[in-house]
Amino acid sequence: xxxxVVVILTTINSHQGVQLAKRLAHKHDCPxxxxxxxxxxxxxxxxxxxxxxxxxxxxxASNMKNQ
Length: 67
What we know:
It is a single chain. With 67 residues, the chain is mainly α. It has one domain (6-66). The chain has 2 helices and 2 strands, in the order E-H-E-H. Strands 1-2 form a two-stranded parallel sheet. The longest helix has 27 residues, at 40-66. The mean pLDDT is 83.
């Protein structure tokens, strides 16, 4: 996998462009988020949420192995 998540911005992409990006992300089993726009602070929040989610997934997997 080349990316943890695909960020699709709607303000700079056409409707067909957004639909294509969604289809490709789904085809390659890559999670995506659709946003109207994304500034620096919002992008930081998004990355922090992804890191937190990945940490929780790793912790749950580790707990399952230890049971």
